[in-house]
Amino acid sequence: MNALSPASTTPFSLCVYCGSRTGSDAQFARAADAVGHWLGQQGGRLVYGGGNNGLMGRVAHAVLEAGGTVLGIIPQALVNLEVAKTDCTELKVVQTMHERKALMMENADAFLALPGGIGTFEELFEVWAWRQLGYHSKPMGLLNINGYYDQLLGFLAHSVESGFVSDHQMNHLLVDSQHDPLLVALQRAAANQPHTVHTTQI
How would you classify the pairing of strands 69-75 and 45-48? Predict the structure, then answer.
């Protein structure tokens, strides 16, 4: 049975943060493909940074291949640097990174971080901080492929022990090493949030 509720009137819209490189472990690319195929098979929508390279390009391609839709949002300055994915269902070119991230948050029901670098870390922590500050109440997930985020999670546990991060804050982030249960958990958590009308106009 389709994971989407028959009563749903809008597709599950998932914002994915991930690398513009594929990384050194082939499991990272396979995970990006699997996430994209899962979302596309549900008739869902990917919201992402609009690039055609690395894991970003792979997850977007997989969503389209599986029948979903893709909203890419990319600053003009990165169009050439990241090689924009021009076959997105909708590609929005904006002027600043702040504009990009705000639109990504606005247009998503949930957030998922795959392996990535500094940009991925920054995006995840920003949306996590926004959740803590009450700017949104949307679910967030971290897909820990082949232990990629083990040391980060260890440091976060150290931050809790040191009194700078609370258990409540940590509970905002769903973590799994398998994409299926994590995606289902994010989708279910998003369905319990107040209905949001997605807009792509700026």
Answer: parallel
